[in-house]
From TrEMBL, chains A, B:
The lineage of its organism: Bacteria, Bacillati, Bacillota, Bacilli, Bacillales. This is tRNA pseudouridine(38-40) synthase TruA. It comes from the Bacteria. The keyword Isomerase applies. Keywords: Isomerase. It is an enzyme of class 5 (isomerase). Its EC number is 5.4.99.12.
Length: 260, 260
């Protein structure tokens, strides 16, 4: 039986999602708990994609196979009891055996939180990126609209990336808005390159400070050169917000939207 | 020259304010930085009082003596550059040589944050106490009013306390209010016993869940017996909010209110 789970995690104390030889990872913590529940029989999980060190998730999706007969709400409770305090399982449901958390993704949404203002907030230092200089939200939003649609995002892909194939991706929705002292950048797309959202954010911050004009974004996209774009914004402001699946699903997509 | 500083800290990664042989403390981190600034000459700081492991401060006050000639705004900048990310200096000012951060306190305010609702928020787990059962804020506020004024607070003092003298203290202001999904308990007084605020909060939570009637609070106070009061609420919801001084001060108390 294949199960799909929506999970949240606070990325602060993790070396990222994916298992690695050194450092605590989200994947390892979850697999440890599942393996314990299966009396030592190793259980592997597959996520919609990985997230980097310090990046958070409120709607990450994973799948795994099990032969345990546990009702879904009890799965949530059992996992949350055993998982560390910085990982939370929001929902578990049965899916067809050919459901795949990574291959079947139709869209993903990321959100990036900037705290904009002279004074920082030490209690949020792991959860927002503090930018002291005033940002022009309207200009940032305008600039963000150049990202809409299908483009070669080479300029917005980390030079360290080992992407196979092209760097053409499609952004289906993007916007910048103010919410109290926070500026929130929403980016939704069918696929993302390594560090793509954080480089988009870094570039939009340059627009917000006035360092770049809004229409420079189209030139940067056209340049297909990482050096032309802005800095990679730091990880702590980034949240994997939601993962959507259209295929092989029972159309009850509601359960995938992490209520947050 | 004596300086007074208002400091904030995120208590999560500290074994409390006060220096101890094992564990990282706020006092030690600040003294290390000051000693470095004084080229190795040890500098001692004195706070308005200590806070326990996991307890936060947005308006803790300290004093120390220095012979360095640095303008006050530069003190703030220099300290913040050298201090770790979970301590922040908000303001520094010169005070008379006989000012004492502990002995001269006239009032202190603590605030306790409860996040009330079925779902927890893993991103706030170090900053609020999550109570899933719905609390009756009106009843909690009503019950809190029994604490106003001068009482023997023996029932609200940790049994581990080694307080010398009596346990009579004066609460000058107290209230419970809802703010979005948070319930905030404000307690202001001229002095506090060990764990006093957290036991008051634990008792008010019992009122909020209906386990105790509002007027039981006056019986608990009268009992002068720790066993009659509620549990000690956990540290992560507690903030030392503000410390007031009336004596030996230039009456410019504004600078003492941490803008938060």
């Amino acid at each position: 039986m294949r199960l799909r789970a929506i999970i949240r995690y606070d990325g602060t104390a993790f070396s990222g999602y994916q298992i690695q030889p050194n450092g605590r990872t989200v994947q390892e913590e979850i697999e440890k708990v599942l393996t314990k529940m299966h009396k030592g029989k190793p259980v592997r999980i597959t996520a919609s994609g990985r997230t980097d060190q310090g990046v958070h998730a409120v709607g990450q999706v994973i799948h795994f196979d099990t032969d345990l007969e546990i009702p879904n709400p009890n799965w949530v409770r059992a996992l949350n009891t055993m998982l560390p305090a910085d990982i939370e399982v929001v929902a578990v449901k049965e899916v067809p055996d050919d459901f795949h958390a990574r291959f079947d993704v139709s869209e993903k949404e990321y959100r990036y939180y900037i705290m904009n203002g002279a004074s920082r907030d030490i209690f949020r230092r792991h959860y927002v990126y503090h930018v002291p200089n005033q940002l022009n939200v309207q200009e940032m939003h305008e600039a963000s609209q150049y990202f809409m649609g299908r483009h070669d995002f080479t300029s917005f892909c980390s030079a360290n990336s080992n992407v196979k194939g092209d760097k053409i991706r499609t952004i289906t929705d993007i916007g910048v808005e103010q919410q109290n002292e926070d500026i929130i950048i929403r980016v939704r797309g069918t696929g993302f390159l390594y560090n793509m959202v954080r480089i988009i954010v870094g570039t939009l911050i340059d627009v917000g400070t006035g360092k770049r004009a809004t229409n420079e974004v189209s030139e940067i996209i056209a340049a297909t050169d990482r050096a032309t774009a802005g800095k990679t914004a730091p990880p702590q402001g980034l949240y994997l917000w939601e993962v959507d699946y259209e295929k092989k699903d029972d159309k009850n997509n509601d359960s995938l939207r992490a209520i947050y």
